[in-house]
Specification:
Alpha-Beta Plaits, Sulfite Reductase Hemoprotein, domain 1, 5-stranded antiparallel beta sheet, binds iron/sulfur cluster, heme, oxidoreductase, Cbl_synth_CobG-like
Length: about 425
């Protein structure tokens, strides 16, 4: 059952990725939703077949870490039985659809996108020609509600909008406005865009962002036959997902996951609290998990586990990838360094991410601009201001202690 292993690609159940602590298997969940039963089953899998650790991905999926060569095959069988594995008939690309985390229950939403997502998933599965899409090729379907995904960028986004009281989807390709479609046309438009992409790309690994840079949005929209739009996507900061709040008739408890890392025991506790409040878990792309429940979830019962209960928490000011020793590409302890930097980072920005600590130039944890980005290289860090890991550093070879100093100086300037 084991497929060839490669470093640096997008892992799935049948195509795991080798890393510093063993194999990584990414479980692509149905719209990021996780029942208590499924959450406990995944926690058991992490205990039995891996090192008990998970990472919450930027696409609201869970990655099991530390899978051994001998335990991969039984894990794959188990995940297959749980309905969590891609198959020949339904490859992982058919599962790469991110939907608004409160879909179906949010009174602020322009529409319930659930049926649209299912139709799109069905088209991506049935049209076998689309199985040639790159493994990372993704779709976003956003309902325009309280926890909108409009801040996220992926290959193809459908963003619900209303004009003259009539809802429609604004379509963006790699974050650039490309056209619009009627609500009922989403699956067809998604199919036409994917076919146009396959027709126009110049290499199997090219993504939509590369194609847009090479030939422009208009050429792709023309090939896909999209209706033109005068609207533009607005990529604001991610919404506030953490805290206890009401959404329609539901109680929501949003919990931050430090650097997206959680263990099997934490997942079991989350399953317990969701079950006790007649609810389920919903994963978000913002390193946060929601307990969406009928009765108020008992947040106090989670006080002893390392979750984040407020957006103001210093750890929410820093993004960090697994780093060393978990990732074979890393030479620095990103989580350790990020924890040290967090209080200074929070002083510099009250909300949102201020510092990105990346183990290497790949920038997995935060593939977008941050005010301060530290990029691990040969046991030290390079520093980029107001950019991404792809930008030119203004300083190089900084030790962990020097990172603190750099941020302390920025804090001192602001306080002066
Ligand atoms: S950014 Fe971090 S997790 Fe990603 S490959 Fe580099 S070291 Fe590994």
């Amino acid at each position: 059952m084991r497929a060839a292993l490669r470093k640096g690609w997008c892992p799935s159940v049948l195509r795991p990725m080798a890393s510093g602590d063993g194999l990584i298997v990414r479980v692509n969940l149905n719209n990021g939703r996780l029942s208590p039963v499924l959450a406990r089953a995944l926690a058991r899998c992490a205990h039995r077949f891996g090192n008990g650790l998970f990472d919450l991905s930027a696409r609201a999926n869970l990655q099991l870490r530390g899978i051994g060569d001998a335990t991969l095959s039984p894990l794959q069988s188990e995940l297959c039985d749980l309905g969590l594995s891609e198959t020949e008939e339904a490859p992982s690309t058919a599962r790469n659809i991110s939907a608004s985390p409160l879909a179906g229950i949010d009174p602020q939403a322009i529409l319930d996108i659930g049926p649209c997502v299912e139709l799109l998933r069905d088209r991506l599965t049935r049209e076998t020609i689309l199985h040639a899409l790159p493994a990372k090729f993704g779709f976003i379907v956003d309902d325009g509600g309280a926890l909108s995904l409009a801040s996220e960028k992926t290959d193809v986004s459908f963003l619900a909008r209303r004009r003259g009281g009539v809802p429609h989807f604004l379509i963006s390709l790699a974050g650039r406005a490309a056209g619009e479609c009627a609500i009922d046309d989403l699956a067809d438009a998604g199919l036409r865009i994917a076919l146009a992409f396959l027709e126009l790309r110049d290499a199997p690994t090219e993504r939509m962002a590369g194609l847009v840079r090479r030939i422009g949005v208009a050429a792709i929209a023309g090939e896909a036959g999209l209706a033109p739009t005068t609207e533009t996507p607005v990529h604001d900061r991610p919404p506030t997902a953490i805290g206890a709040y009401r959404v329609g008739g539901h109680h929501v408890l949003g919990l931050g996951v430090p650097f997206g890392r959680l263990d099997a025991a934490m997942l079991e506790r989350l399953a317990d609290i969701a079950e006790a409040s007649s609810g389920e878990l919903r994963l978000t792309p913002w390193r946060a998990i929601l307990v969406v429940a009928v009765t108020p979830p008992d947040a106090a019962s989670l006080a002893d586990i390392a979750l984040i209960f407020s957006e103001d928490d210093p750890l929410r000011a820093v993004a960090a990838c697994p780093g060393a020793p978990d990732c074979a590409n890393a030479t620095t302890s990103t989580h350790e360094d990020a924890r040290r930097l967090a209080p200074f980072a929070r002083r510099l920005r009250a909300r949102g991410i201020f510092v990105h600590v990346s183990g290497c130039a790949k920038g997995c944890a935060h593939p977008r601009k941050a005010p301060v980005t530290f990029i691990g290289r040969d046991g030290c860090y390079d520093l980029v201001l107001d950019g991404t890991t792809a930008d030119k550093p203004i300083a190089a070879g900084l030790s962990g202690a020097q990172l603190n100093l750099a941020l302390q100086q920025l804090v001192a300037k602001i306080d002066a």
